[in-house]
Amino acid sequence: MSRVGELGLTEIGVEASGALREIVTRSLGSAPVATYVTEQPLAWDVIRQGDWDLLGVPESDGGAGASLRDLAEIARVWGWSIAPSPLIPSLLSKRWSSAAREHAGPVTFATLTRTSAGRGVSPFGVDSDVALLVDLDGSLAKASGISVDDYAPSLRVVECAEATRWTPEAARELTVVWAAEASGCASRMLQDAIAYAKERHQFGQPIGRFQAIKHHLANAHMLAEQAETAAIVASLEPERSFTASQYGFEASLRVIEIAIQVHGGLGFTWEMGLHMYLRHVSALREMAAGLRA
Amino acid sequence: MTTVGRAGETPEAFRRDAEIWLAANVDEHWRKNRGALSEDEETRLRAEWDRKLFAGGYAGLSLPVEYGGQGLGLAEEVIFGELAARAQAPDGLGRIGKILTAPTLIAHGTEWQKATYLPPILSGEHVWCQGFSEPGSGSDLASVSCSARRVEGGYVVRGRKTWTSFSKHAHRCLVLARTDEDAPRYRNLSLLLLDMHAPGVEISPVKQISGSEHFSETTFDDVFVAEQDLVGAEGEGWRMAMTVLANERGAVEGITRYVEIRADMDLLLGCCAQAGEFTERLQELDTRVELVRWQVSKAVERQHTDAHFLRSSMVLKVIWSELWQELTSLAARLSCAEHRGHWRHQYLESRSATIYSGTSEIQRNIIAERVLGLPK
Fold first, then answer.
1. Residue B166 and residue B214: Cα distance in Å, rounded?
2. pTM, full prediction
3. Which residues of B are catalytic?
4. A222: nearest CB among B283, B287, B318
5. Average pLDDT over residues B329-348
6. Which of A151, B111, B288, B289 is the most buried (most CB within 10 A)?
């Protein structure tokens, strides 16, 4: 694949991330996340019809052959809205497994984490139509859910008896894609915080005029930039995938924490929904940590 | 060797040629003894480096060919900056002339000024210094009080400038001075090309906390500047000083700093830090050092879209300077006996990085206002 886009992006990555951004914007606009996080705003049919779940499948197996760098860009776009649809797990499962590829519906996996006490943690495993990939070269299963973990509503996590047996390469790719998704979350939260600082008035002026707020947001911007750069490095330099991703998660979380601070009292209301991103990214970080065996 | 324009060369070919050229031209004596050279010798080698750059066709890489530059772009400036730092090439004495005076004159200078000043800047014959900051005007640069009073045939300049690098060697100084006591802020300043050998110029070195003397304080006691050495229109100094500067320097300086910080990181990891000590912290610092390099690449790739370029390039200075301080602070704790002197020096030296060319606080204001669009 020839290199056409920025820093190693191929044509697939440029086109797919652009198109996905359009779809997400069309269906969600700038609606507050709290209004759709418990709904299904992007139905599986939409994803299936666009072959979005086959983007990462090698060309030799009938897919679009996106590179890891491309998938990172796509995940960044996805992180913008954290729509609760199983696109990312399906996309990766179908990249790695032929059984997943043959399955027309969504597919997910389950990771072990420090706090899951030996259970698998499966994003979107709550939904009954999502199949579970246990062995990358085996057939699909149905998650035997034990309990729902509703900490991050956008991830629809279930704790189950099974855990996916990773190959080192799959574990690396998933870590990178999640870190990229987290950086997309950070960029969105930064944008919302900037907009809020411009419109919210106190002491007779927009709070964004105060240096204390400016410096918070300048720091958030520097961290968001580095989180994005970290995702790019992680996708392009395999020996740095884990360390760069780890830094990316930390930087992204810090951006969201700052966004909450800048939103003041509204920042810690359930309704405002900023916490959905905080929950989403900290859950991704926890699951990713479980991949680095 | 004659100077040849390099326009048309691919970045890959440029990189390969530059690597070969640097290997052949960086003085061995400099490479082995830098830091331990006498002041005279250091000055001589740095001045010689400017002449070598010119002879080799590496002076003014991104300046237009018609003015003696190479007609290349930011990508090549960054490539050369990285390779030169890796090859431990000297920092030429002509830096201010090339990165500050030349672009300013190309954008705003008269034909006479360009014809007179650009050739000796590029050839390394003339060293320039920058007369912007003053003892009373640091972060608030627009408040400079050094005055340029109109007299017959030109101006008489009076005042003090500080943090003037290269002033001891400089032939000319790019001075920001107040030409109008009544005009409003930002419209009362002019840019003058002042002869450092003229009567009334006095230089005294400023010793820094690390013991080095990179800067001076310069006093102008009624120094005459001819009319022909006013850049642009009177009262336009601030606008000109601000428009040309900033952006390109960020990426080139960023990559140069990356190479130096990388060398410090490697020394810390490869020698001083004991196994198991601060492992996670060291790993994070190591990752962040690499992010500086990639952040520069990201900025270069985005240079043709102003907003995107600004977003990724404006953050560089704060990121590398604060990272370097964290690194030297940890290294001062973990140092082995052999490298104690090095880390003590770096620790002290790195304090200045978050202060010069715009403090971290001013940089954050600029990011908030210019990049994020927050109200002034």
1. 8
2. 0.93
3. 248
4. B318
5. 94
6. B288
